[in-house]
Design brief:
- The chain is built from 17 helices and 13 strands.
- The protein is of the alpha/beta class.
- Strands 5, 6, 7, 8, 9, 10, 11, 12 and 13 form a nine-stranded mixed β-sheet that branches. A four-stranded antiparallel β-sheet has the order 2-3-1-4, covered by helices on one side.
- It starts with a helix and ends with a strand.
């Protein structure tokens, strides 16, 4: 018997409030509901989390006292109810009734009356409650991130914030070894799937409406992959040449690894490394689907395994762990999970990774540093710190249409042409 979809969404949201990522929780919960309810579960989970700072601030006004930690599922249900009233086409009376009814599925019968009262009061006092919100909450952003965006991107702040609150497009990467972009767009249209060419990557296709990957023509045969256009720029900027040895140092789940191999099938070797052995399995699965080969190694980029010899790579890609502040629209749980206090440790980790990998690069070689962050502390500042330490490291020009020039690289913003927000910097190793 399938679970109540709103109760399931409440459990997902409650788990994220408790500190788990959406990727940790949602895939398993999708199996708890009927196939016809899965799209609704995703909409309720993603939509509620996208609006969570705003909805939490409203809920705080509606509750006499905070809910207990053990009742995070009830908090999730209330937030989900507010989201439905605020941002969906579900009639108000139906949204209230279905949300109240979900308290039974949660086995929180005591919450039935409270849930009904909270949602009905919101309908009566919506305008007053909304007017009481501060600027950050009204923009559905945590205060610390809202202020950083305003300070670091004053001209683009409104567009970034708006983009962060939207559902992102589904973007594909055509495997150029199997098909041209134009041919695949024609194939999509032949299957009744509306699509257009991307604006940055010559291999990118943007769908008008997201669909299940297995409904894509010849997806299983490796003709196409799902990858945001900003992320596709990594392999294009790396410019790996025939006969070269390449390291993708933080490789999972393998989108960039596979793209490098698609662009340059005559590499001497591509080594894909990741610290997480389970996530490295995803790299293996992607390579297999695309009929590509790479050497997979489990290891910490900050302290590479001895099997990776010094000065043995012509090119290194560092897609460093980061705040994910540039991909919030794809990972709305970042709004709840990320803290301002996380940024400095992340920047130090990024610097340690650069230090650990630099000895592996040959003289004259290229290292491409990338993050999915829009924060200067993780981007230009990290590169500047590294350049002051390494006398043989030099910043090389990085050209990328549609990007912003920053101190030590190029920045794509989530407001730019429908792409995610990624930072790129190219470093050369002098002789």
């Amino acid at each position: 018997m399938s679970a109540d979809v709103r109760a399931t969404a409440a459990r997902v949201i409650g788990a994220v409030i408790g500190g788990l990522s959406l990727n940790q929780v949602l895939p398993e919960k999708l199996n708890d509901v009927s196939e016809r309810d899965r799209a609704l579960l995703q909409q309720l989970s993603y939509g509620t989390l996208r609006q969570s700072p705003r909805l939490q601030a409203i809920l705080k006004q509606l509750l006499d006292k905070p809910l207990r930690d053990k009742d995070r599922d009830v908090q999730g249900l209330l937030l989900c109810g507010l989201y439905q009233l605020d941002s969906t086409r579900v009639p108000d009376h139906a949204a209230v009734a279905a949300t109240v009814d979900a308290t039974r599925a949660l086995k929180k019968h005591w919450a039935k009356g409270m849930t009904n009262a909270v949602l009905r009061r919101y309908l009566r006092e919506r305008e007053q409650l909304t007017q009481a919100l501060d600027e950050a909450a009204a923009a559905s952003h945590p205060a610390w991130l809202f202020q950083k965006i305003l300070a670091q991107w004053p001209a683009a702040a409104a567009a970034i914030i708006d983009a962060n609150n939207q559902q992102p497009p589904m973007t594909l990467r055509v495997n150029r070894g199997q098909a041209s972009r134009d041919d695949y767009i024609s194939s999509l249209k032949g299957h009744g799937i509306a699509a257009k060419a991307g604006c940055l990557s010559k291999h990118a296709i943007q769908l008008a409406v997201p669909i299940d990957v297995w409904d894509l023509p010849e997806f299983s045969a490796g003709r196409v992959s799902v990858q945001d256009e900003a992320a596709q720029m990594a392999a294009l900027l790396l410019q790996a040449g025939a006969g070269e040895r390449v390291l993708d140092a933080c490789a999972a789940p393998g989108g960039k690894t596979c793209h490098i191999l698609e662009l340059q099938p005559e590499l001497a070797e591509l080594v894909a490394m990741d610290i997480d052995e389970l996530r490295l399995q995803k790299v293996s699965e992607n390579l297999q689907r695309l009929n590509l080969k790479a050497t997979l190694i489990t290891g910490d980029a900050a302290s590479p395994p001895a099997a990776l010899e010094p000065a043995s790579f012509d090119r290194i890609l560092v897609d460093a762990p980061c705040s994910a502040s540039g991909v919030i629209r794809r990972h709305p749980d970042v709004k709840l999970l990320r803290r301002e206090s996380d940024i400095a440790p992340l920047a130090n980790q990024q610097l340690c990774i650069l230090r650990g990998l630099w000895p592996l690069l040959k003289t004259g070689g290229t290292l491409l540093y990338a993050t999915c962050s829009i924060l200067d502390e993780e981007n230009s500042q990290v590169i500047q710190r590294f350049l002051t330490e390494e006398g043989d490291a030099a910043l090389s020009g990085t050209e990328m249409a549609g990007s912003e020039s920053v101190t030590s690289g190029r920045q794509l913003l989530p407001s730019s042409g429908g792409t995610d927000g990624l930072f790129y910097a190219t470093l050369k190793k002098a002789g």
